[in-house]
Amino acid sequence: MPDIDVKNVSFEYEYENKKYLALDNVSLRIQDGEFVCIIGQSGCGKSTLITLMEGLQKPLAGQILIGDKNVDGPGKDRCMVFQHYSLFAWLTAKRNVIFGIKQVYPKMPKKDLDRIATDYLHKVGLEGYENKYPRQLSGGQQQRVAIARSLAMNPDILLMDEPFGAVDTKTRTELQDLLLDLCRNEEKKRTVVFITHDVDEALYLADRIIFMQPKKIRRDIQTNFGKVRKRDELTSSPEYQSLRRELIGLFYERVRDEIAEEGVYI
Amino acid sequence: MIGIIFNLPNLLYVVAVAISFLKPDYEMQSPIAYIIVLTLFELAHLRSRIFRKDDGHPDDMYSIIFAIAILWDVEAKFIKSLHYTVFPPPENVFSIFTQDYDKMIQGFFHSIGLIIAGVGLGMFFGVFLGLLIGWNLRARQSLTPIINVIAAIPALVYAPYVVAVAPDFKSASIITIFLGIFFPTLMNMIGNVAAVDKRLIDSAKSLNLSSFDMIFKVLLPDCAIPVITSLRIRISAAFMILTMAETIGSNTGLGYYVRKWSSFADYERVFAGIILIAVVVTAINSLIKIFEGHTMKWTTA
Question: Sign (positive/negative) of CA torsion A239, A241, A242, A248?
Answer without folding.
Answer: positive
